[in-house]
Every structure is written in structure tokens, then in C-alpha cells.
Amino acid sequence: MQVMIRCKVKPDEVARNLELLETVYEELESVQPDGLRYATFQLEDKVTFVAFVEMEDGPGVLRPLEAFQRYRATLDERCDEPSVMTMLHEVGSYRFH
Question: CATH number of the domain that 75 lies in?
């Protein structure tokens, strides 16, 4: 399963969003869950974030992560627009994996 998640946060929530994402990645490094590839990018406008997630076993791999739960719990409050999740179907890649 591969997904792209896009969210646009309120300008005054950017620092908080970055802090929460930092704790998510710290926990991922600590736990190192199998079957998960996860990357987040901050776009040029500084308020839009795009995450690319590949999960071999589906979204359940993220549920046990406390930092991820804290991030998700307040995401809607931090966003200017609702987050959008898009399923991805790989056509091809070069050195992406």
C-alpha cells in the first residue's frame, strides 16, 4: 500500500507541526517498524506538507506509535485545509526505493 498525504497547516502552527513530526521520526528510528517507508516534505510555501508512505501490512503499522498518535490527534486543528490522502499506484521508479 502506497499513499501520499498532503496537508496545509495554519502559518502559526508550522513550528508545532515540525516539532510533532520530529518526534514521529525519532520514534520511528527507535522502534524501526518492519514494512514501513515514510518520508515527509515541507513545500516551498512552508505551510504545505506532503508525506509519502509505503506500508507492506497496511496502516496498522503506525497505530502503536505514540508520537504518531499525538501528531494525528491534533492534525485537523493545525490545518487550514483538511488533509488529503491519495492512494498511489507505482508506474515506475528509479532509485526511489
Answer: 3.30.70.100
